[in-house]
Amino acid sequence: MKTRLMMIASALLASLICLPASAQPAQGSGGMGGGMNGMGPGGGAGMMQGGGPRARAPRDCSQAPNPAACTAQREARTQAREACKNTAGPQRRQCMQEQRQNFDCTKAGNPQQCEARKMAYRECQGQTGPAFRQCMQQKMPPVDCSKAPNQARCEQHQKARAACQDKIGPEHKACLREQFGVK
């Protein structure tokens, strides 16, 4: 009886000791281990593609509603990244915004909206943060919902935009949630 109890206790103790080790991620699969592949801490699959930790797979432009516009936007994004590759932080953000202004609107899905966005950006260029976003929202002309694929949804967005245009930050988000009925 005593031997059986000792065997059960030792099996239970061994399983409790080994359980935390078996719950750890494998070496090189995004865990903290260095492993044989030379990855440091936090080097997961997203980091290996060169796009940073939030990198996504490129969109399949053949499935897009406007494949030519999708391809043009992808090329412009690639050119902007190449032009700004030696900058970091706020300088990189500024460089990317400037590069976006070089986009050829004739290739855009909605050329009129593209031109309006570029003009609004030029008018609001000296501002930053919430003031810039609010300026852009006020300077952008309303979207023509008659050309939208889902007119009811477009009109709902326009109504919410008009109702919340004078608010910024958390108040703006709360206003939008209220307009869309989100809790």
Task: Describe what this molecule looks like in 3D.
- With 183 residues, this protein is mainly α.
- The chain is built from 8 helices and no strands.
- The termini are far apart.
Q: What is the structure about, briefly put?
A:
Helix content is 56%, strand content 0%.
What is the percentage of strand-forming residues? under 5%
First and last CA, distance: 61 Å
Mean pLDDT: 76
Task: Report helical residue fraction.
Answer: 55-70%
- Model regions low in confidence, pLDDT < 50 over at least 5 residues: 28-50
| Shape by Cα distribution | elongated
The main sheet comes to: none
Assembly state here?
Answer: single chain
Count of DSSP H/I helices: 8
- Measured on Cα atoms, how large is the radius of gyration? 26 Å
Structural class: mainly alpha
Count every beta strand, where a strand is a DSSP E run of 2 or more residues. Answer: 0
Spell out the helices and strands N to C: HHHHHHHH
Topology of helices and strands:
Blueprint: H1 2-22, H2 45-48, H3 67-83, H4 90-100, H5 111-124, H6 129-139, H7 151-163, H8 170-180
